[in-house]
């Protein structure tokens, strides 16, 4: 008895376990897909609409399409089966070793189409195994040669593998570490946290990093930086990989630097406190010396008798005033450095302030054979600032200009508004100047740039410019110094626009 088995050739073609497609040969030499089964669509990672009825160039890259075309041409010319090896770079997941291209002949002996049949890679599993083995070998090599300690622990927190770098760094032998609790490596105060974190990280696949204290074999404690990552192997076995880097020396250096900074800050505070306390201890006796010498110099209570005494008293008075000036500058700088200077702001006319300084310095300038010129922009607004500090800034700058200018020289004081609605004050002289490479030094406290004996009459504390700069910066401004040797000096003060009060000057006159 025989049984007829109906065959659905279309279903058989579509469900074949190997990739297959039928290629039609067009007259102009192009190749079009007439039909394609599911596996070939998976191989090229395209839908049926993107493949069937299209040229092979529509779903292959140029290199693969050209490779197949060359094979098709050989098959057409010889009218025999041809095998072509599959090229890499195909996006799909189906692994094919080669394709068999078979010509389909018509009754007239001409090729009507080409039957393309893919050959699965029978050695696929062995190739995957080799790739897996190579990857494991590579990772093992990295694990062994790494200079950073690596510890692998299982789900129960037991060490299953450790590299040589960890052993060298912390002194434990491999036998002592394998199967030991990984939390036992850290100091007792951190163990509970280490156990809790290990359970959480390995259960949830959390990555983490931080610092921990590891016990060395010799009993010492090492500060270490760690990072953790969870990996999952076959049968859902999870392991935690922890990299450990000893940062004990770095922590010691940080601690030493912190201690040095604290000591420097303490010394700086002590210096500032000491200098601030000098105010009463030094100023009081100096004021007494100045006062008594003035009384004796003026012979308030009668004649001194010998004129030589009067000469000496003049020297005492001048020296005491000079010393008081130096102490005042040092104390002012100390207060600014200690952050103990608060601005007492009010609104005033800057022209009047500058003119008062000019009048005060006029006699000293005249005695040195110098001329002071004023160059003020018209209709200047008022300024909101600390009047006393602004006066001190200008006195310091004009004093320097007088001190370092030659007889017959000129000093110019200018005031103008800037493009961004701020204010610029300049003090310019044509004196001896400062070498360009020493400008920064001149702006540092005690940073005198002249050491010559013949200039001792011009020497001071070296605080005039630094004090002016610090006081300008307290107002949110900037002080810029331009100078060259033998060509004079220009000091430019720039104050921000928020300190400008655009009101009538008369409104602030008393």
Please specify the SSE layout and strand pairing.
Layout: H1 9-14, E1 20-25, E2 31-36, H2 38-44, H3 48-51, H4 62-78, E3 82-85, E4 96-105, E5 111-120, H5 124-145, E6 149-153, E7 159-162, H6 164-170, H7 174-177, H8 188-204, E8 208-215, E9 221-232, E10 238-246, H9 248-297, H10 307-337, E11 345-348, H11 350-367, E12 371-376, E13 382-386, H12 387-403, E14 410-417, E15 423-429, H13 439-442, H14 464-474, E16 478-483, E17 489-495, E18 500-501
Textual characterization of the structure:
- The protein has 510 residues and is of the alpha+beta class.
- It has 4 domains: 9-122, PAS domain (Beta-Lactamase); 127-246, PAS domain (Beta-Lactamase); 252-337, Helix Hairpins (Orthogonal Bundle), CATH 1.10.287; 345-452 and 459-508, Histidine kinase-like ATPase, C-terminal domain (Heat Shock Protein 90, 2-Layer Sandwich).
- It contains 14 helices and 18 strands.
- The chain has helices at 9-14, 38-44, 48-51, 62-78, 124-145, 164-170, 174-177, 188-204, 248-297, 307-337, 350-367, 387-403, 439-442, 464-474; strands at residues 20-25, 31-36, 82-85, 96-105, 111-120, 149-153, 159-162, 208-215, 221-232, 238-246, 345-348, 371-376, 382-386, 410-417, 423-429, 478-483, 489-495, 500-501.
- The strands form 4 sheets. Strands 2-1-5-4-3 form a 5-stranded antiparallel sheet, covered by helices on one side. Strands 7-6-10-9-8 form a 5-stranded antiparallel sheet, sandwiched between helices. Strands 12-14-15-17-16 form a 5-stranded mixed sheet.
- Strand 4 (96-105) and strand 5 form a beta hairpin.
- The longest helix has 50 residues, at 248-297.
- The radius of gyration is 46 Å and the shape is elongated.
- It starts with 8 loop residues before the first helix and ends in a 9-residue tail after the last strand.
- The relative contact order is 0.05.
């Amino acid at each position: 008895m025989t049984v007829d088995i109906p065959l659905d050739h279309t279903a058989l073609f579509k469900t074949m376990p190997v990739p297959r497609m039928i290629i039609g040969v067009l007259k102009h030499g192009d190749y079009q897909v007439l039909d394609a089964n599911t596996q070939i669509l998976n191989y090229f990672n395209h839908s049926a609409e993107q493949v069937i009825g299209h040229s092979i160039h529509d779903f292959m890259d140029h290199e693969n399409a050209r490779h197949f075309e060359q094979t098709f041409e050989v098959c057409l010319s010889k009218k025999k089966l041809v095998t072509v090896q599959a090229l890499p770079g195909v996006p799909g997941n189906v692994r094919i070793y080669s394709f068999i291209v078979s010509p389909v002949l018509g009754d007239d002996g001409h090729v009507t189409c080409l039957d393309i049949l893919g050959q699965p890679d029978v050695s696929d599993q062995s190739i995957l195994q080799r790739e897996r083995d190579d990857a494991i070998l590579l990772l093992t090599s990295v694990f062994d040669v790494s200079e950073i300690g690596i510890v692998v622990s299982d789900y129960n927190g037991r060490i299953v593998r450790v590299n040589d770098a960890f052993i060298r760094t912390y002194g434990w032998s491999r036998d002592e570490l394998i199967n030991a609790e990984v939390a036992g490596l850290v100091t007792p105060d951190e163990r509970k946290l280490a156990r809790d974190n290990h359970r959480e990280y390995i259960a949830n696949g959390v990555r983490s990093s931080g610092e921990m204290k590891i016990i060395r074999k010799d009993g010492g404690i090492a500060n270490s930086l760690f990072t953790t990552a969870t990996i999952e192997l076959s049968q859902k076995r999870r392991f935690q990989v922890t990299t450990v880097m000893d940062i004990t020396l770095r922590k010691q250096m940080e601690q030493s630097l912190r201690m040095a900074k604290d000591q420097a800050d303490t010394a700086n505070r002590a210096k500032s406190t000491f200098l601030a306390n000098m105010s009463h201890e030094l100023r009081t006796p100096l004021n007494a010396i100045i006062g008594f010498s003035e009384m004796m110099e003026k012979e308030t209570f009668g004649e001194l008798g010998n004129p030589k005494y009067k000469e000496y008293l003049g020297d005492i008075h001048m020296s005491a005033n000079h010393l008081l000036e130096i102490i005042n500058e040092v104390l002012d700088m100390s207060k600014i450095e200690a952050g103990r200077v608060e601005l007492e702001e009010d609104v005033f006319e800057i022209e009047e302030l500058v003119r008062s300084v000019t009048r005060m310095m006029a006699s000293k300038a005249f005695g040195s054979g110098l001329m002071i010129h004023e160059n003020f922009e018209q209709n200047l607004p008022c300024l909101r600032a600390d009047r006393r500090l602004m006066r001190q800034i200008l006195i310091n700058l004009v004093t320097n200009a007088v001190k370092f200018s030659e007889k017959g020289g000129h000093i110019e004081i200018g005031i103008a508004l800037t493009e961004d609605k701020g204010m610029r004050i300049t003090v310019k002289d044509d004196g001896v100047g400062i070498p360009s490479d020493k400008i920064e030094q001149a702006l540092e406290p005690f940073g005198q740039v002249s050491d010559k004996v013949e200039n001792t009459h011009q020497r001071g504390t070296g605080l005039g410019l630094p004090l002016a700069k610090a006081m300008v910066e307290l107002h949110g401004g900037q002080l810029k110094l331009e100078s060259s040797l033998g060509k004079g000096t220009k000091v430019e003060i720039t104050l921000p626009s928020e300190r400008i009060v655009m009101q009538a000057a008369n409104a602030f006159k008393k």
